[in-house]
Amino acid sequence: MARIARLAGIAVSVGDEGSRGDGHFFFLRPTYTDTAVVHPSAPGYLRLAHRPLAATLQRERDKIQSYGHAAILEGADFLPTVFETFGAVGPSAVKFINRLADEVIGNGTSTMEDQPTKAFIYRSIAATIQKGNAQVLLTGARRARSRLSSAYSE
User: Fold this and answer.
1) Which of 21, 46, 52, 149 has the highest count of CB atoms within 10 angstroms of its CB?
2) Do residues 5 and 25 make contact, with C-beta atoms less than 8 angstroms apart?
3) Alpha-carbon distance values, 22 to 2, 63, 149 (Å)
4) Nearest to 86 by CA among 48, 42, 129, 131
5) Per-residue DSSP letters for 41-85?
6) DSSP type of residue 1
7) What is the pLDDT of residue 19?
8) How many CA atoms lie within 13 A of 87 on its CB side?
9) pTM of the prediction?
10) Is the dihedral of CA 132, 137, 138, 142 positive or negative?
11) How high is the mean pLDDT in each 10-residue block of the chain (154 residues)?
12) Is residue 115 helix, strand or coil?
């Protein structure tokens, strides 16, 4: 998201873990964000799995509790951007993406790579999450293969 903002001439500061989140977007109204991708089928979220977006909403609440107050003290909004590995998007992330798209369009960029700005943002995020999912699967397959070959060599 920072790359997209920078392409449209929006100032962004991306930092390390800290008290204000990991992305500071200097929109008309400064907005801080902290991003997470949750896997709703993970053991820690199974108790919530019966409700749509429950894992995402829980993670949003955790992030707001961690970073929201610091953003307010600095006169900024805090919108956590939480996504699920299965593709769902949290409500605060939707607000942030809408704000990002409005700012990009306001800076004169109505399309990116021949796509409407908002569609480009969502597709970029989806591709990034799928790449992460593939990396997790590849890492798991390599570890399983390594364990299997170790078991046969003993």
Assistant:
1) 21
2) yes
3) 10, 11, 40
4) 129
5) TSGGGGGGTTSTTHHHHHHHHHHHHHHHHHHHHTT-EE--EEEET
6) -
7) 57
8) 5
9) 0.87
10) positive
11) 89 74 90 94 88 94 94 94 95 97 92 93 95 94 86 70
12) strand
Which pLDDT value is given to residue 121?
Answer: 95
Domain span holding position 22: 2-153
Distance CA(69)–CA(81), nearest Å, equals 16
**Are 104 and 92 contacting, i.e. CB atoms less than 8 angstroms apart?**
no
Q: Which single residue is written with the structure tokens 């998201």?
A: 1
With H, G, I as helix, E, B as strand and everything else as coil, classify residue 23: strand
Q: What total number of domains does the chain contain?
A: 1
Cα distance between residue 25 and residue 1, in whole Å: 10
CA 71/CA 74 separation, integer angstroms: 5
